[in-house]
Amino acid sequence: MKNNVKYLPIIIFSTLALGVVLGGMLNFPNAADFSNRNNSRSKLNKLIDFIDNEYVDDVSTDSIVNLTVDNILAQLDPHSVYIPPSEQMEVVESMKGNFVGIGVNFYMYNDSVAVIKPVENGPSAKAGIKAGDRILYADKTKLYGRKLPSDSLFSKLKGTVGSDIELTIYRKSERKKLKIKIKRDVIPLKSVDVALLLGNKTGYIKINRFAETTYREFMLGITKLKQQGAKSLVIDVRDNGGGYMEEAVAIADELLTDKQLIVFTKNKNGNVDKTFATKKGSFETGNVFVLINENSASASEILAGAIQDNDRGTIVGRRSFGKGLVQREMDFADGSSVRLTIARYYTPTGRSIQKPYSKGNEAYFKESEARFGNGELFEKDSIKVLDTLQFKTKKGKIVYGGGGIVPDVFVPIEVEHGNESTAYLLQSGIVGNFVFEQLDKDRSAFKGLNFEEFKTKMNQTDLYFNLFQKFIFKNGLDLNFGKSKSLVKRYLNAEFARQLYGESYYYEIVLKEDAMIKKVLNQK
């Protein structure tokens, strides 16, 4: 149930492959005893052996198996996926919520590993690594000028807890090389970006995915916000493609009262498993708002559905992605795994929000693109819902199944003059790359400025707006920001703030003019 979401207006999931069918055929007794179905499985194994032993040219049978597996999975559903060994570790770390390493955010800039920012209180920060440093060597391994892929770089910097690594760095600001010894440690991968107050009484929590640590991170955030006086809560799961269902359920439990239904699942045998809220919730009273958009999927939709169907809060934004399938991950001896759909989940009113996939995977994922064409990202009346899939909450509110969570309060995509591509671009990695390059050229331009002075400086200049426009054209993107100046400047200023001061400062700038946040504050 783990998905990833990129910045373009379509959610692209991992390509498919599977070993469960193949793996299940290896320990049968005798071909003479097989049923017709098992004969087919035996045939597939024999064909691979024939190719391996007799085919005229050398062929990687592993790649043939993967192709076969891809084709098998393509007949199932878009979310049953195979994860090869080369990708499995990254997936595990992302969902576990931590890894062992040196603790730096880096960017490959002109074939060198450039440190964007060391992780606060991490091993690199404690050892003296600074933003802008170039990592030339990890021990004796050369890292620059080699066009190494990111996974190779990560492998050089990761290790076991307490192990030492010596980095040779070039510090541009001082124009000298340094050797710095770092002791590796556990580095958290935050799934809750920030927990802060909007005004005096409204708490805001941004969840970027549902990992093993998300509920714990959420509880730390909600505890802090309540201590600061929060009486209302905004949970932002925009662009959150999902993750562990259990984490979303645990968060919903904190918001709902005892015995309220959170979600139920149904498998191929018709077995139903219901999950209810328990007695003690940390935020069972007070207004709740959940922010969603077209890239909110899976566990995000479970949380939003539970809040909506129990009349507990208000869903704000745009129709969510529409993924109502439950996956279980199954591991293989070679380090790969398969994530296989084992059930469907239903919101408390009994609706499935899974959108159709009978036309194939390509059409399924392109449905997100179609929402631009049919206008539903701009006008609520353009949202396509089936009247035959109406459900009612206990208070009589009509909700819909058959394709995502339809918000209670619609907010169109935040664009100026209809340029949705600009809106998505501004939340992509390219903005961070541009900002790093500008800081790298003249980091001293911001030296000694506190945050308020920084905001004043940025609001008074169009320098970086103009440079960003040139940067975009140089990179082959035909986007003119002339009619979106205020929007572009807001995201540029926010990214500068993130790299100079930290994550919470990014959100302080972005949220101030955020259309959904404004709508929430006006609802109260």
TrEMBL record:
Q: Which InterPro entries match?
A: ClpP/crotonase-like_dom_sf, PDZ, PDZ_sf, Peptidase_S41A, Tail-specific_protease
Q: Its Gene Ontology biological processes?
A: proteolysis; signal transduction
TM segment ranges? 7-28
PROSITE patterns with a match to the protein in the record:
PDZ
What keywords does the record list, in alphabetical order? Hydrolase, Membrane, Protease, Serine protease, Transmembrane, Transmembrane helix
Q: Name one GO molecular function term.
A: serine-type peptidase activity
**Assigned GO CC terms:** outer membrane-bounded periplasmic space
Coiled coil region boundaries: none
The keyword GTP-binding is assigned to this record: no
Family statement: Belongs to the peptidase S41A family.
Name listed for the protein in its UniProt record: Carboxyl-terminal processing protease
Species for this entry: Flavobacterium glaciei
